[in-house]
Amino acid sequence: MILDRRDGAVGPSAYCAQPCRLPRRLAVLLAAVLSSVAAVAQETQFISDVVLVPVRSGAGSEYRIVNAGLPSGTALLVFTVSEDGKWTEIETRGGTRGWVLSQYLQKDPPAGLLINDLKRELERVQGERDRVVSQLNLSSSEASEADETITELTATLEATLTELTEVKRVSAAALDLDSLNQQLVAELETERSDADLLRLENVRLRERIANNQTLDGALAVLLGVILAVVAPRLWPRKNRQDGWS
Description:
The protein is of the alpha+beta class. The protein is 58% helix and 16% strand. The chain has a domain at 2-109: SH3 Domains (SH3 type barrels).
């Protein structure tokens, strides 16, 4: 339960000076409650939005104060409620046990504690948001770097493809040159063979001409001999006349 500010609520010093008087409507309500409730089960409750709530050794303002005042939002373990319902036996987490006025207890955490929890949650959410934003910025930066890398790789790939096309073209030209070279070599060998044949025929022709010239010379000599022998016989001899005839 959470403590509330009600008419007649005073600071811690007042609790020691005089007992708190119970309002009439509250007394009627407590009488109805006491008729059905004998004890309250142990549960966690909180000090309401009051500056300080004193803890007494007994269920009454005449008992000594064992704790000068619990601040608002203090979590308490509840054991039992007095017969008149005015006082509640509690124990703090630090081990202090005693009685406080029931009107200052409430089951829900006070607004101040909730606000603090909300502030802490807000700070946590903001920190998480900042972390996510930082990660997003980092991811954006990495994405930009990745885009630049992809652009560079694309340019390199295009240059490589261009070089490969040129290499293929040069290779094709080299293959064509090799094929043409082989064809020229074959033609050259053919021409060499033809030249050798022509050279051989030329040699033979020269030998034939030389032989023919030799034969013609021999025939001319033979013809001259024949003429030298035969010609005198072809013409009649004249009788030689001299002075003795």
